[in-house]
Write a structure and sequence with these properties.
This protein is 45% helix and 11% strand. It is an alpha/beta fold. It has two domains: 178 residues, P-loop containing nucleotide triphosphate hydrolases (Rossmann fold); 135 residues, Helicase, Ruva Protein, domain 3. The strands form four sheets. The protein has a five-stranded parallel beta sheet. Strands 3-4 form a two-stranded antiparallel sheet. It has a two-stranded antiparallel ribbon with strand order 6-7. A hairpin with an 8-residue loop joins strand 6 and strand 7. The radius of gyration is 24 Å and the shape is elongated. It starts with 15 loop residues before the first helix and ends with a helix.
């Protein structure tokens, strides 16, 4: 196996899309260009950012993670650029900003799309000239750092919607790493689930994940991605019994009480091998009600019912 294909620290997955993530991250680490990381919430963007930092020349310096979404607009400039004494009432001493603190290391702007346009414009000068001024200051200061920008929506959408300035977007997108959502790498779900089971048991013999239950996990769309799967498995690991079967998965899936969600109904049916009476009991409704609900939701029994994971995949994931 090529060294660049190996998993990044803390990341699990051998799907081709993840191997591409590992390769791109390692190439980015060897470059001095700004890095753009794009991925839905819970896909592991910070893990990739830290791996790039640790594999780069900036690893000798600090890793400064800035949660831009948590910065109040009125304080964003001070937090990033720092404040000189007397800049405003209460500024009794000079305070370095996070840009200054990141000197010699990596500055990660998490959810950079939350930054006001005026701050984006000021960051451009820092990115291009490595110079900045503290709030209320005249002295030009320098900070040499590796910039990693993290967003959860495609860059083009953010520019089109006026959330990111085009010049800022172009400047931070030096080297891009795109993380796939978990639903697009379903073959990694069982691997991840078993990994989380081991860690949830503190290294003791973990519960056994039954094949049919793993099939249901692969069919669920996981809107919260790997983070949601981890929390889900931890809940199941704390329940009674020494195995995780179809019933325990179905009852714990989000929306387990809903017989109006076509995806959930299809998953429950698939988990029972399309035994309508058993699926109705799991949903807490009468069998006749489930038949009627299937007609209303357009759910039809697949032609063949040999495999939980194969037969209902198109029904559960395409609704």
């Amino acid at each position: 196996m090529n060294q660049d294909d190996a998993n990044l620290p803390g990341m699990i997955g051998r799907h081709p899309a993840m191997i591409e993530v590992y390769r791109r991250a390692r190439l980015a680490a060897r470059s001095s260009l700004p890095v753009l990381i794009v991925g839905e919430t819970g896909t592991g963007k910070e893990l990739v950012a830290r791996a790039i930092h640790e594999g780069s020349a900036a690893a000798r310096g600090p890793f400064i993670d800035v949660n831009c979404a948590a910065l109040p607009e009125t304080l964003a400039e001070a937090e990033l650029f720092g404040v000189e004494r007397g800049a405003y009432t209460g500024a009794v001493r000079p305070v370095p900003g996070l840009i200054e603190v990141a000197n010699g290391g990596t500055l990660m702007l998490d959810e950079a799309c939350s930054l006001p346009a005026a701050i984006q414009a000021k960051l451009l000068r820092v990115i291009e000239q490595l110079e900045f001024r503290r709030v209320g200051g005249r002295q030009r200061r320098q900070s040499r750092f590796r910039l990693i920008t993290v967003i959860s929506r495609p860059m083009g959408e953010l520019v089109r919607d006026g959330i990111l300035r085009p010049d800022f977007a172009h400047r931070v997108a030096g080297s891009a790493v795109i993380l796939p959502p978990l639903r697009e790498r379903a073959s990694d779900i069982e691997l991840l689930a078993n990994h989380f089971l081991v860690h949830a048991n503190g290294g003791a013999l973990p519960k056994k994940l039954m094949p049919e239950a793993a099939g249901l996990l692969r069919m669920y769309r996981w809107p919260g991605n790997v983070r949601e799967l981890k929390m889900f498995i931890e809940r199941l690991a704390g329940a009674d019994g020494d195995m995780i079967d179809v019933t325990s998965v179905v009852l714990e899936l989000p929306g387990a009480e809903s017989d109006h969600d076509p995806g959930h109904v299809a998953v429950v049916l698939a988990g029972t091998g399309w035994v309508v009476a058993r699926a109705a009991r799991m949903l807490g409704i009468h069998r006749a009600t489930l038949y009627r609900r299937m007609r209303e939701l357009g759910i039809a029994r697949p032609p063949r019912c040999g495999s939980v994971a194969r037969d209902a995949l198109s029904v559960a994931c395409d609704t």
